[in-house]
Amino acid sequence: MKNQEKKIEIKSSTKEEAIQKALKELGLEEKDIEVSVIQNPSKGFLGLIGAKEGIYEITVIKKEEIEIAKEFIENILIKSKINAKVNAVQDDNLIKISIEGKEATCLIGRRGETLDSLQFLTGLALNKINKDSHMRVLVDIENYRSKREQSLIRYARKVAREVAKTRRTKKLDYMNPYERRIVHSALQNDKYVITYSEGTDPYRRLVIECKR
Q1: Cα separation, 65 vs 75, whole angstroms
Q2: How buried is residue 145: exposed, middle or buried, by Cβ count under 10 Å (0-12/13-18/19+)?
Q3: What pLDDT, on the 0 to 100 scale, is given for residue 78?
Q4: How far apart are CA 193 and CA 175, in angstroms?
Q5: Is 132:89 a contact under the CB 8 Å cutoff?
Q6: How far apart are CA 146 and CA 111, in angstroms?
Q7: What's the pTM?
Q8: C-alpha–C-alpha distance, residues 104 and 142, integer Å
Q9: Peptide bond between residue 202 and the one before it cis (omega within 30 degrees of 0)
Q10: pLDDT tens digits for 115-147?
Q11: Superfamily of 65-142 according to CATH
C-alpha cells in the first residue's frame, strides 16, 4: 500500500454520496482516495425523526510525483483517443516524460506551443497534489525537443554570422524561456556577438548584437 497523507471528514446520508462530495472537493478520482466509516448513517423513527447523517473519513492516497505526472499525460492521451506510449524518468528534481507514437505529434503544435501547454498543465497537476513540490517537468513527443534544439542552434549561429558581417542588430521571433536559453548557450562564447532578451513573456524575444 502507498503512503497516505491528507484526510478529510465528510457527512452524508450514504457512502456513495460521501465519495462524490469528496472527489468534487479534492478534484481527484475515486482511485486516488480511501474511505473509512466513522459513523454509519441512521434513518431515525419512520425514516424522519432523529435521522443522522453518516460520517466518513476520506484519505488521499499519496503517490510519487513521477507517477502522478505520467498518469496525467496518459489520461489526456486516452481522452484525446491518441494511441501512444508514455515513459517517465526522474533526474534529481526534474521529471522527464517522453511520449512515443506518431499519433501524438498532433499535440506538439506550432513551434511546440501545444507541447509547452501540455507541460505546463502537467506541472499544475503536480502542484495541485503537492503544493510544496519543487519538481520540474519536461514533456517531449517523438524527440521533438532535441530536434528543435539542434534547429535553433543552427539558426542562432547563422544569424550570428550575419550580425557579425553586417554589424546590424537582429531581433529574433518571440521564444519561450527554454528556447531562449538554448540560443544564449549556443552563442555565449561567440567572439563577435552578444545576446540578451527584451520584453515580457509571452512577447519576450532574444536580441543578437555585435560586440563593441
Answers
A1: 15
A2: buried
A3: 94
A4: 19
A5: no
A6: 13
A7: 0.64
A8: 8
A9: yes
A10: 999 999 999 888 877 777 788 999 999 999 999
A11: K homology (KH) domain (3.30.300.20)
Tell me which of 3.30.1370.50, 3.40.50.300, 2.30.130.10, 3.40.1740.10 is the CATH number of domain 146-210: 3.30.1370.50
User: d(Cα 70, Cα 101) in Å, to the nearest integer?
Assistant: 15
- Strands of the 94-100 sheet, one edge to the other: 85-91, 94-100, 136-141
Q: In the chain, how many H helices and how many E strands?
A: 5, 9
Amino acid at position 17, single letter: E
User: Per residue in 142-176, pLDDT tens?
Assistant: 999 999 999 999 999 999 999 999 999 999 988 88
Instruction: Name the one residue in this structure whose C-alpha cell is 466518513.
Output: 56
Tell me the residue type at 193: V
- Cell 513527443: give the residue: 141
Of 150, 126, 128, the closest CA to residue 138 belongs to 126
Pairing of strands 33-39, 4-12: unpaired
Of 7, 146, 130, 6, residue with least CA distance to 67: 130
**What angle (nearest 5°) sits at the alpha carbon of residue 40, between those of residues 42 and 12?**
80
Give the CB-side neighbour count of residue 44, counting CA atoms within 13 A: 9
Q: In the 8-state DSSP scheme, what is residue 171?
A: E
The candidate with the shortest Cα–Cα distance to 38, out of 57, 51, 58, is 57
